[in-house]
Amino acid sequence: MIKNLGGTIVPTGGYVAGDAELVEMACSRLTSPGIGSSAGINFGLGRLILQGLFLAPQIVHESLKGADMVAAVFKNLGFKVLPEPATYRSDLIQSVRLNNPDLVQKVCQSFQNSSPVDSFLNVVPSSMDGYDSKLLMAGGTFIEGSTSEFSADAPLRDPYNIFVQGGSHIAHIKIALIRLLFDLLEEKLISKDSLLPLST
């Protein structure tokens, strides 16, 4: 809920909880020694926090429409998707089974190239705490790590699922999908015959 409630504009996402002494130490690290939690709970970000709450329903709506579009495009290309297009969703994450590590990299790179920030960066597999395999992440976002803006990540292991989430604007998701289709056509990873009209 933290990222959805932030409406993609709140520059932080998380809470500090625990023993009072440890919370105060964390607050001193976030602000400065001697100020700690006396700085308040929002670190001067009150306007952004409230604006994020105001924008959150619209952002979630755009993300849900985008996830359905991602599902429809990949399903039309013959990939297994979960959830299916036009079905109930319990969150914003769209899973696509690509069955190919090279294809995972190409999809992530294409999405990165469509990002509003850091679109020039190369997506490379890297280790990450909590994962037992290397991970690819695409997400050129205004707020670092804001997967609600539009992102894709994939652990590089069989069956090579990619997890697409977020999208603050349906237009951005459409642009990313159009670019992806052109990239896949150019590399002959899909054929023009596979580009069927979408029903959604």
Write the layout of secondary structure elements.
Elements: H1 2-5, H2 20-30, H3 46-76, E1 80-82, E2 94-97, H4 101-113, E3 135-138, E4 151-155, E5 161-165, H5 170-186
Antiparallel strand pairs: 1-2, 2-5, 3-4, 4-5
Helix pairs in contact: 3-5, 4-5
Description of the structure:
By secondary structure, the chain is of the alpha+beta class. The chain has a domain at 57-194: Aspartate Aminotransferase, domain 1 (Alpha-Beta Complex). The protein is built from 5 helices and 5 strands. The protein has helices at 2-5, 20-30, 46-76, 101-113, 170-186; strands at residues 80-82, 94-97, 135-138, 151-155, 161-165. Helix 3 packs parallel to helix 5 (170-186) and helix 4 crosses helix 5. The mean pLDDT is 87.
> What's the name of the CATH homologous superfamily of the domain at 57-194?
Methioning gamme-lyase, C-terminal domain
Structural class: alpha+beta
The CATH class assignment of the domain at 57-194 is: Alpha Beta
Principal-axis shape: elongated
| Secondary-structure arrangement, i.e. CATH architecture of the domain at 57-194 | Alpha-Beta Complex
Percent helix = 25-40%
Lateral strand order in the biggest sheet: 1-2-5-4-3
Instruction: Indicate the radius of gyration in whole angstroms.
Output: 19 Å
Q: Please count the beta strands (DSSP E, at least 2 residues each).
A: 5
CATH topology of the domain at 57-194: Aspartate Aminotransferase, domain 1
Rounded mean pLDDT is 87
- Helical segment count: 5
Uncertain stretches: none
Major pleated sheet: 5 strands, antiparallel
Determine the strand fraction and express it as a percent band: 5-15%
